[in-house]
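DM between two lab members

TW: hey, do you still have the Cyclic pyranopterin monophosphate synthase entry open?
JB: yeah, one sec
JB: this one, 157 aa:
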Amino acid sequence: MLTHLDAQGRANMVDVTEKEITHREAVALAKVRMLPATLRMIAEGEHPKGDVFAVARIAGIQAAKKTSDLIPLCHPLMLTSVKVELSSEGEDTVRIEARCKLSGQTGVEMEALTAASVAALTLYDMCKAVDRGMVIEQIQLLEKHGGKSGHFVAEGA
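TW: and the structure you got?
JB:
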């Protein structure tokens, strides 16, 4: 059984030594709600800090690569692909989708969730001077496949 607890009930990293190497992929979502004027400023390339989406995308990619440094007991993974896409959703929301892939013994859900979260936080950081009321919301796993637990698709995804 896989657990983060050892025989004495202490937290430890799950031993994945005996697990099969398979192709694994996960997609996570985050949304940032803001004033329509803030989103227009970003979309029209008029934000004083430059290309907000490009910086948030890079931050998300970097975060995915550092997930094991941020989340206790998370395995360090050799990711083979990380993609972070940001797009407008309506007049006041940015949709962030992060997709992580690898061939390995453990999944990439935490990497995808970390990428989406950090991209959202970066977007907030870059825009907070013009819109302090932004809300980061709906951080969730949309889909994952590979490994023993099989395929997962979030309801409504």
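TW: got it. The chain is about 30% helix and 30% strand. The longest helix spans residues 109-127.
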